Amino acid sequence: MDLTNARRRKSSRSSGQANCVEIAHVADRTAVRDSKNPEGPVVFSGDVNWSVFVR
Description:
This protein is an alpha+beta fold and about 55 residues long. It has one domain. It has one helix and four strands, in the order ββββα. The chain has one helix at about 45-55; strands at about 10, 20-25, 30-35, 45.
């Protein structure tokens, strides 16, 4: 999946620090990556599973 133009978000609680995860909603999935390693692996979750995880 091409994530080149994905709009990523960090938690507002990260206070601008680089030590957190970033998420991007792409199609019907949520992509999660480590902000310290933006070229590293990405974990994908279906949007339903992501919603359950966040709750």
